[in-house]
């Protein structure tokens, strides 16, 4: 499943950092890490099927 992730503060797309089974989200616009609970998601496959 393909997803895009966005910063809840500035709505910019965030960079997904994956290591050791954990995912972190970094906003290059705000220059800060974003909690996985606060991140905004967009499901691209669901949009393609509609």
Question: Can you give a write-up of this model?
Answer:
The protein has 50 residues and is mainly beta. It has one domain (3-49): Rubredoxin-like, CATH 2.10.290.10. It is built from 1 helix and 5 strands. It has one helix at 44-49; strands at residues 3-6, 15-19, 22-27, 32-34, 40-43. The strands form 2 sheets. A 3-stranded antiparallel beta sheet has the order 2-3-4, with no helix packed on it. Strands 1-5 form a two-stranded antiparallel ribbon. Strand 2 and strand 3 (22-27) form a beta hairpin. The mean pLDDT is 88.
Give the gist of this structure.
The protein is mainly beta and 50 residues long. The chain has one helix at residues 44-49, and strands at 3-6, 15-19, 22-27, 32-34, 40-43.
CATH architecture: Ribbon
CATH class: Mainly Beta
Gross geometry:
globular
Tell me the Rg in angstroms: 12 Å
DSSP strand count: 5
Tell me the span between the first and last alpha carbons. Answer: 15 Å
Sheet bearing the most strands, described? 3 strands, antiparallel
Strand order of the largest sheet: 2-3-4
Mind telling me the CATH superfamily name? Answer: YfgJ-like
Helix fraction bin: 10-25%
Under CATH, the topology is which? Rubredoxin-like
Give me the secondary-structure category: mainly beta
Total helical elements: 1
Uncertain regions spanning at least 5 consecutive residues: none
User: Strand content of the residues, in percent?
Assistant: 35-45%
Taking all residues together, what is the mean pLDDT? 88
Secondary-structure element order, N to C: EEEEEH
Our count of domains comes out at 1
């Amino acid at each position: 499943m393909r997803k895009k992730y966005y910063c809840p503060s500035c709505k910019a797309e965030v960079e997904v950092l994956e290591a050791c089974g954990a995912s972190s989200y970094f906003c290059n616009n705000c220059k800060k890490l974003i909690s996985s609970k606060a991140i905004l998601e967009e499901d691209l496959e669901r949009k393609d099927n509609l």
